[in-house]
Request: fold
Amino acid sequence: MKQQQGMIFNFKKENGQFIHTFCEGKLVHRIGLTPKTVIGKALKDIFPLDYAEQKGKFYH
Reply:
């Protein structure tokens, strides 16, 4: 899955937040992230709040 051109991820909703449970793909590494920095975290823990809120809409 690491060779996937984009990004593959899974998440679960916990206490009103979407928490990443899996993340892999070339795009993850190209934007400077690693699965270790994403898994177990919410969008707001990874990205600036305005961007996280915007992307969070897609998770619903």
Summary: The two ends are 24 Å apart (CA to CA). The mean pLDDT is 90.
